Structures are given as structure tokens and as C-alpha cells.
Amino acid sequence: MTRIVGTLSRRARMWTALVIVLLIGVVAVPPAPAQDRDCGHFATQAAAQAYFVALGGPTDDPDRLDADSDGIACEALPCPCSANPGSAPAPTPTSTPTATPTPTPTPQAPAAKRSARIVRVIDGDTLRVRLSSGRQITVRLIGIDTPETKRPGVAVECGGTAASAYMHRIAFRRGRGRQVTLVNDPSQDATDRYGRTLAYVDASEKGDLSRLMLRAGWASVYVYANPFGRLARYESAAGQAAARRAGAWDRCDGDFHRPA
Q: In this structure, what are the phi and psi dihedrals at residue 252, rounded to the nearest 5 degrees?
């Protein structure tokens, strides 16, 4: 019996020693080191930067990805790149923004022209004409204003009679109304509030009747709503008349609407 107990005790001590050795071996063996990565493991700088930041960069750089310690990992790799040191890269856009197209200017409609013959002078800036179709219309000349002579409720104004007489002089030849071309202006309405056609009137052998009225000093430049196409040349003609004190610039001291 004593021999059996002694044998069991020796075996117990052997197993105990074996367990202790195994435990010491487990504790003493160091863990396998994590895989070291270099810049060649990443396709882009942005991917390397994200890994670098996840491992504690730029404070910690266990894989030595930031060679110059500027907080940017693997700077030689192709973009997309991280612009901010120590930060994860901004997300790459999934689509390219579409540029807003520049609107194409709408071309202005060309001026329409109609042939006509002057039938009557109503006043210095208004004519009655007959179209080639035989229909008669009243035309209010674009861009000028003359002293009133026939406006209801308005007394005849200074220079009004002379302005009408001068228009008759340039609109008729040997007692017959001149052949003219009516030219509309795309910047202006087709008719005014009285239903009169708005147009430039270019007479054969005379040219632009409105400009002739301005140069003679019997009309002033008139802009109703929008500047018209011939404004610059009309202002030049009026300026010349004022400098010469022609027509109403002399007779009426340049006041085209004072009572006669």
C-alpha cells in the first residue's frame, strides 16, 4: 500500500511540473509581430494616408510611411491625395460635375422694310403714306419729337408751324409725295398707343427724314422706352443744330414745347 501511494505521488509531481513548464512557455513566447507595411502596399496616397491616420499618425508612425515627418504619408504615390496633414482623405467624387452651359444670345430680328409713297404731312413727326398694296397708314417717325400743332387740348407750340412746313418741303417734290422706305426698329414697338406705325422714313434722294429734321433744328431727339438703333447719329445731328442755333434752337431758345 505504501509503495502504491508513493508511485501516485511521483506521477502527480511529474504532471504538475509539466503543466508549469507549458504555462511558462506560453507566457514567455512573444506574440507574432503585425505585418509591416510600406508605401508599395497602397495604390494611392489617399489610401496610405487613411492607414497612416488609423495607426496614430502623424504622432505615431510605426511603419515609417511619413519619411519627412510632415504629416503626409507616401507623398510619391499618385492621387487622389489627402491635402490636410494628419487627416483622412476627403471622399472622392463619384461623378464629374457638369458645367453650366453659357446661354446663347438670341439674335435680334432684322429690320423689316416696306415701300410707300407720302400722301400727306400731318405735322413735323407724323406722315400719312400709301403702301404698295394701296392701303394708307399713318406713320409716327421713330426717334424725334417736334412742336405740337394738332394735338387735341394742346396749343400750337413754338416752332410747330415751321416744323410742319419744313417736313412738307423735304417730303414732297414738285407737289408730289416722295417715294420712301419704311424701316421698323426691332427695339421699338410696331405701333404706338394711337395705332400709328412706328418707323424710320428714308426718302429717295433725301435719305432719313428724321435726321434731316434734326439737322435743320426743327426736331429734338425722343426716346420713348428703349434706345433705338439710330440714336447715336440722331444725337449727333441734334448737337450740330444746337451749336449752329438752327431752327427752334434759335427761335424758341431750344424749348420745343413752349406755347407759340
A: -115, 15
